[in-house]
Amino acid sequence: MTKKQKKMLVRIIIATIMLIGLKLTPESLLSETSWIRFGLYMVAYLVIGFDILKKAVKGIQNGQVFDENFLMAIATVGAIAVALFEKSGDYAEAIAVMLFYQIGELFQSYAVGKSRRNISDLMDIRPDYANIEVDGKLEQVDPDEVEIGSVIVCQPGEKVPIDGIIIEGNSSLNTSALTGESLPREAKCGDEVISGCINMTGVLKIQTTKEFGESTVSKILDMVENASSKKSRSENFISKFAKYYTPAVCISALALAICPPVIRLVMGSSPMWTTWIYRALTFLVISCPCALVISIPLSFFAGIGGASKEGVLVKGSNYLETLSQTKYVVFDKTGTMTQGVFEVAGIHHNEKEDAEILELAAHVESFSSHPISKSLKQAYGKDIDQSRVTEVEEIGGHGITAKVDGISVAVGNAKLMKKLGIDYKDCTHVGTIVHVAINGQYEGHILISDKIKPTAKEAIAALRSAGISHTIMLTGDTKSVAESVAKELGIEQVYSELLPGDKVSKVEELLAHKKEDEKLAFVGDGINDAPVLSRADIGIAMGAMGSDAAIEAADIVLMDDDPLKISKAIKIARKCLRIVYQNIYFAIGVKLICLVLGALGIANMWLAIFADVGVMVLAVLNAIRALFVKNL
Amino acid sequence: MKKSYKIEVDCANCANKMEEAAKNTAGVKDCVVNFMTLKMNVEFEEGQDAKAVMKEVLKNCKKVEDDCEIYI
To answer: How many CB pairs under 8 A join A and B?
Structure first.
């Protein structure tokens, strides 16, 4: 509890004791009409309500008439005036109203503070310092001051402060604050590390590749902290609603206090002024809009916080709203549903040893930086002696010919074989085929394929069971590869052999085709998908670990590459929105009923207090539920 | 130029009011108040002195919500 809250608590306790004491004092000691009674009650009233009165006066001075303070001040002062006028001596009601209002406020500020802390603890990834070795001693410096290319030392238990590459040591890294993934990640010399991970076991020397401000951790923090500044439609609705609601209620209350007595007067019966004024005051207490005004943003805040705990970063509450209405999910293939890492899956139709074919192919491709050549080199696994390779000729779109140890070798696709007039065999498997010919003789082909992510199939099934009606995959890959992946995963529609520009027009086509209230989400790995990510109703980027473009272009970022998180994010969004609507309907509903009851004189001040504070407490408790998303 | 300030305010509605007040202050191009992180992000107009503008912003915010604070 903060100092302010503690002070409030003390005031509440004092006022409660005074109120109970005064209520228990026998009538004979404090007669109903005595001024001492009035004075004592007033002391209790001021103890609990002086700040509200002060704020109400200040509000009027500054032209801010219709706020909650004004409502409470008018209602309670009015109730006291009625009690004085009727000589009933029943001041307790006014004090109780103020007391419960303050209890409600205290509870609300405590709950908000608590969830605020919960979420900031969750995002407690900001590193406070970086260690730099100076003359053999470690020195702690501000991460902001570390220049690119400096070597920083990260001890076990410390956070990696800046993105970089490990140049010494190995360790396991805890990435749970970033990804929600509890399994530690192994890191060795030469690996890239991103800031925000916690170094668990060994001392690491890291050469920084970015400034602190550009590092992953800074970007993420910036994003989360600014998340709720993008307001959703429901939030905008509520602030607009509150703007018109309070004045409308005040005018209705005034009308309730004046019109019926005047009509009665005209009709010749007794006007019953106090009864109607009392009803109008009850009306005012009921009408306080705090339940809505606080619980809606709180729900979104909790939803965003809960999502970030699961490794799903949401850039604004409006995106949570859109995501909850998603019916179309469009995927990119490479890097999203597949790992985007090409691996040699097999060598076929060869008479020579696999290892020999691989060795020759890897050497021929050793000067290329194409992903295919990388996977060949990786599969070969040994060091490549480039001096063995001569007369390298790269034929764009075909492949490479070269001499290895004086033997001429051609490595490339079917086009290359045709061009060289070599008879080749097609592969029955799906993937990229690299044909190899030695001295003009066909020696078989190497099959390279991209691995499907282990959770991809499950992810599509989860989406389907979450009620996503259309799953569509867009890819630049060949038709056969695309269709086999789609079939394996259970994706309904596939569009293959698309250039990045085609993806945008395809998404636009889908956008035009679907209904207005069915939203389309695009899931991509963020690097070449940036235009599509921003064109779709909602862009979800995968594998944000390290990709700046993803963080910039997407509306939602899945911190680990797990496609299962897509359906999780949708479920989180739906839960959050469900809570928001529950609160809107509940709060407005209860208030409307109580307002009617109050106007008819059935509801008294006590029910009014429930309608105000009780509803708010329930709405806030309900809002906090949005934080719990683990088991969705 | 954009700057971020820490603020203190008790209720979400008051935060909205502060945002409105800050937006209407001369020299402020745009302003977003984030109640949940208790931050005020102010975008100033070209060539404005952030400190002087923020003083005005604080004054205007105090008008609409007496119980608020901006840590300039």
So the answer is: 55
pLDDT tens-digit series, residues A287-332: 777 777 778 888 888 888 888 878 888 888 889 999 999 999 998 8
State how far the Cα of A154 lies from the Cα of A591, in Å rounded to an integer.
57
Q: Cβ–Cβ of A58/B66 closer than 8 Å?
A: yes
pLDDT at A570 (0 to 100): 93
How confident is the model over A526-580, as pLDDT tens digits? 566 778 888 888 989 886 554 666 667 788 888 777 888 899 999 999 999 999 9
Closest CA to A540 of A323, A327, A337: A323
> Rounded CA gap, A590 and A605, in Å?
15
- Residue B16 with chain A: CB contacts under 8 Å: 239
- The catalytic residue positions of A are 332
| Cβ pair B63:A297 closer than 8 A | no
Quote the minimal CA–CA distance from B58 to chain A in Å: 14
Report the SS3 class of residue A489: helix
CB contact under 8 A, A294 and B66: no
Taking the C-alpha atoms of residue A207 and residue A200, their distance in angstroms, rounded to an integer, is 18
> A340-451: which CATH topology?
Calcium-transporting ATPase, cytoplasmic domain N (3.40.1110)
Structure confidence at residue A604 (pLDDT): 79
Residues of chain A with CATH 2.70.150.10: 130-224
Residue B64 with chain A: CB contacts under 8 Å: 62, 64
- Which tokens in the block code for residue A546? 């390290």
Please state which CATH number belongs to domain A130-224.
Answer: 2.70.150.10
Tell me the shortest Cα–Cα distance from A631 to chain B, in angstroms.
25
Q: How far is A546 from chain B (nearest CA, A)?
A: 25
Contact yes or no for A239 and B16 at CB 8 A: yes
Which residue segment(s) compose the domain that B44 sits in? 2-71
Residue A532 to residue A473: CA distance in whole angstroms: 13
- Write out the residue limits of the CATH 3.40.1110.10 domain(s) in chain A: 340-451
The tokens for A545 are: 């670990």
Which of A55, A120, A229 faces B34 most closely, judged by CB atoms? A229
Residue type, A629: V
Helices (H) and strands (E) in chain B, counts: 2, 4
Global pTM value:
0.76
Q: pLDDT tens digits, residue range A471-508?
A: 999 887 778 888 888 888 899 899 988 877 788 888 88
Minimal-distance CA residue of chain A relative to B65: A59
Which residues does chain B have within 8 Å of residue A225's beta carbon, measured at their own beta carbons?
34, 37, 39
CATH number for the domain that contains residue B45: 3.30.70.100
Q: What is the 3-state secondary structure (H, E, C) of A261-312?
A: HHHHHHHCCCCCHHHHHHHHHHHHHHHCCHHHHHHHHHHHHHHHHHHHHCCE
Contact B16 A119 (CB under 8 A): no
The label of the residue with tokens 């080749």 reads A424
Count of domains for chain B: 1
Asked if the ipTM is above 0.90, the reply is: no
Closest listed residue to residue A594, CA positions, set A249, A90, A293, A102: A249
